[in-house]
Amino acid sequence: MLGICRGRRKILAASLTILFVPAITWIYLFAGSFEDGKPVSLSPLESQPHSPRYTASSQRERESLEVRVREVEEENRVLRKQLSLAQARGPAHHRANHSKTYSMEEGTGDSESLRAGIVAGNSSECGQQPVVEKCETIHVAIVCAGYNASRDVVTLVKSVLFHRRNPLHFHLIADAIAKQILATLFQTWMVPAVRIDFYDADELKSEVSWIPNKHYSGIYGLMKLVLTKTLPSNLERVIVLDTDITFATDIAELWAVFHKFKGQQVLGLVENQSDWYLGNLWKNHRPWPALGRGYNTGVILLLLDKLRKMKWEQMWRLTAERELMSMLSTSLADQDIFNAVIKQNPFLVYQLPCFWNVQLSDHTRSEQCYRDVSDLKVIHWNSPKKLRVKNKHVEFFRNLYLTFLEYDGNLLRRELFGCPSEADVNSENLQKQLSELDEDDLCYEFRRERFTVHRTHLYFLHYEYEPAADSTDVTLVAQLSMDRLQMLEAICKHWEGPISLALYLSDAEAQQFLRYAQGSEVLMSRHNVGYHIVYKEGQFYPVNLLRNVAMKHISTPYMFLSDIDFLPMYGLYEYLRKSVIQLDLANTKKALIVPAFETLRYRLSFPKSKAELLSMLDMGTLFTFRYHVWTKGHAPTNFAKWRTATTPYRVEWEADFEPYVVVRKDCPEYDRRFVGFGWNKVAHIMELDAQEYEFTVLPNAYMIHMPHAPSFDITKFRSNKQYRICLKTLKEEFQQDMSRHYGFAALKYLTAENNS
User: Fold this and answer.
1) Strand, coil or helix: what is 26?
2) What confidence category does residue 71 fall into, taking pLDDT thresholds of 50, 70 and 90?
3) Whole-number Å distance between alpha carbons of 39 and 42
4) 69-83, 235-249, 465-479 — which is least confidently predicted?
């Protein structure tokens, strides 16, 4: 690195020579060319040999000076040529071709060198900062596995998107879980000029499974070693990042550093900021071999094409095999092997300034990487303690991290002006659908919501469940917003089976939910609850979209379509599984109705049997659901018959019927045109009837609605006349669609509506 800087200093000295030597020479000549205030020509043709003041000695002196000037000009010409060649190897000056390129730190080329002198470990930075083409795609590789890492990746990507000005191509080496989560997330995020490719991490396990690893990252912590083999053969360079990274600057600045690689340098790394590889942390501490302090692999610049030519695969394998004979296992996963290779081949590494990987583990020298906030580029939470790590400025770093953690990801859907984006079929279809809507329509916002794509993060928390082998398993399906969070623990106590929940939250609320769940023993003890975050966008609560998301991601053959405000009776899960067999739900189109009741008391001694419930019903502690507000919604259940029923009984569909049912997982989705309050369940039950589902009431099942403050949507329905008009319009359009789709049989819905 010192040699590189010396070479650049020579070029700088040459530049100064070019500027100042001719200037001084000409000043001298110019001054000497005045006699008595009159200019004297330096040209031999214009000299005055017959002038009395002209002498032979002065003539020789002037001729000698002219020869020297020509020599200096020739030297300057050679220096200019050398300087232009040096600049041609690196990127052009930011003023050249300004319409196509931009400087990554405009006006800070020298300040970066100054910081390099101030900040420990930054001696490799000198000279002017390179440039990156405006629309050049930056390639980023990340290894990601599991539920927690998928959440971390989102925060990392937010920090990159926030600062970026270039198209991005993410190469995600992911297991099946992470791929499902992140594929859905990016598909629904719809960020322009961002491409995502997935590579199956499980297929790569055999490449590294022979290496014993003690690091908490497990086998996935070794997969950066095989990126030359995994990533496309035509990909020449890539930035490799750990999931616990936060960017504080444009990633293009880091991409530009590739231009500084010389000779056989193929790895860009920051020096390790702890004493780990020095081997003095404790008695008998024996780390893997490393060059000095070694290098941290949380941020890596890989020149893939050169690494392949160097036979990187063979290089790291031979090194690992040899070292494992004495070390037996790795302690820091891939980092140990990278450092062992570098120890033998130091010419491979280009040392990045340490602000490109400020490592916030305990007892690091990270504070030497910055003197001011503006020095920060990349923060690396590489301690198992993560945000609880000890550091003098950890509060600042934590706040920076939390900023991106809770930042509204919808705001990052911004176009990169001047850069053509790849054609996205989903985006084009969405724009086409929206363009067909009439913006002057008073119900435009309702209609628009049907086509809104909400960013969706599946399985926000760890999920682990294998459905029962007897094919009778049932998942409870519900949706909620932040104001119903308190119902989760109670539902988990009442329902021991799998649950699929769609939560409508902002980014900040999602983090509040995470903290709430992690602080709850009840929720943390349950691994069979799938929490799917649908991020807020628009002015309506997309109730039916949420239900569809929760329905789509169940792993059982049957589902109980409930609402978050209801507590199922104790033992309902097992009762439904028996009913599935008894009523042959696998081979018939049935919707099993669970009768709904309600209480107006916030504290309720929950009935443990049907007999106890009937007693409370008679005493006025419980009521049939919405009997005093919306009788038609559940009247067809026939509660009078249910009181004495001992066997399941069939009921017929009636207008506005909206019971809670158990159905097969292949039942139709909810209609998305209905948002907020009104007709969202009614329309679904109507479609089940149109598809000839048989409604069967279960005689020994029940659920109870718990009291709560009115939702914002029902308040809008009651107070806003236009809201009610639009809902009526949507109902009529839905019924017309039903008639077109189901033909003559669906005419009864129009008749029933007119008679109701």
Assistant:
1) helix
2) low
3) 9
4) 69-83
Strand locations in 254-401, DSSP E? Answer: 267-271, 295-303, 349-352, 358-359, 378-380
Q: Cα-Cα-Cα-Cα dihedral of 91, 97, 98, 102, to 10°?
A: -20
Selection from 672, 377, 675, 718 nearest residue 551 by Cα: 672
Burial 166-176 (b: 16+ CB within 10 A, else e): bbbbbbbbbbe
- The burial of 358, by beta-carbon neighbours within 10 Å (0-12 exposed, 13-18 middle, 19 or more buried), is given as buried
The H helix count followed by the E strand count for the chain is 25, 27
| pLDDT value for 82 | 52
Structural domains of the chain ordered from first start: 138-412 (3.90.550.10), 456-750 (3.90.550.10)
Task: Give the relative orientation of helices 394-405 and 146-163 as an angle to the nearest 10 degrees.
Answer: 90
Residue 564: CB atoms within 10 A of its CB come to 20
Contact 128, 277 (CB under 8 A): no
Question: What one-character-per-residue DSSP string does 465-484 give?
Answer: ----TTS--EEEEEEEEGGG
Yes or no: say if 225 and 199 are a contact pair by the CB < 8 Å rule.
no
What's the predicted TM-score (pTM) here? 0.80
Residue 45, CA distances (Å) to 25, 48, 126, 754 in order: 21, 9, 49, 113
Distance, in Å, from the CA atom of 444 to the CA atom of 441, rounded to the nearest integer, reads 5
The predicted-structure confidence for 485-544, as pLDDT tens digits, reads as follows 999 999 999 999 999 999 999 999 999 999 999 999 999 999 999 999 999 998 899 999
Contacts of residue 540, defined as CB under 8 A and 6 or more positions apart, other chains included, come to: 445, 446, 449, 675, 676, 713
Digit-coded pLDDT (tens) for 638-679:
999 999 999 999 999 999 999 999 999 999 999 998 998 888
CA atoms of 575 and 590, how far apart (whole Å): 16
Distance CA 200, CA 313 (A): 19
Position 567 pLDDT exceeds 70:
yes
* First-to-last C-alpha distance (Å) of the chain: 84
For 211, 276, 294, the CA distances from 285, given in Å and listed in that order, are 20, 9, 15
Q: In the structure encoding, which two tokens stand for residue 678, read together?
A: 């009104």
Beta strand pairing call for 558-561 and 474-481: parallel
Which range among 478-482, 626-630, 707-711 has the greatest average pLDDT? 478-482
**Strand order in 596-598's β-sheet?**
566-568, 703-705, 596-598, 623-624
Query: Which residue, 71, 102, 148, is CA-closest to 253?
Result: 102
- Band of pLDDT at residue 608, cut at 50, 70 and 90: very high
- Cβ atoms within 10 Å of 532's Cβ, excluding its own: 22
Place of tokens 């009768």: 595
How many whole angstroms separate alpha carbon 459 and alpha carbon 462? 7
Amino acid letter, residue 451 = F
What is the CA 674 to chain-centroid distance, rounded? 30
Question: Residue 579, Cβ neighbours under 10 Å: how many?
Answer: 24
Residue 517 CA to residue 515 CA, distance in Å, equals 6
Residue 527 has what pLDDT? 95
Question: How confident is the model at residue 749, as a pLDDT?
Answer: 75
* Structure-block tokens of residue 473: 């398993």
Torsional class of 571: left (φ above 0), alpha (ψ -120 to 50), beta (otherwise): left
Which residues touch 457 (CB under 8 Å, ≥6 apart)? 150, 151, 154, 181, 184, 185, 510, 532, 533, 535
Buried b / exposed e along 711-720 (16+ C-beta atoms within 10 A): bebeebbeee
Residues 6+ apart with CB under 8 A from 434: 448, 451
Q: Which residue has the higher pLDDT, 518 or 109?
A: 518
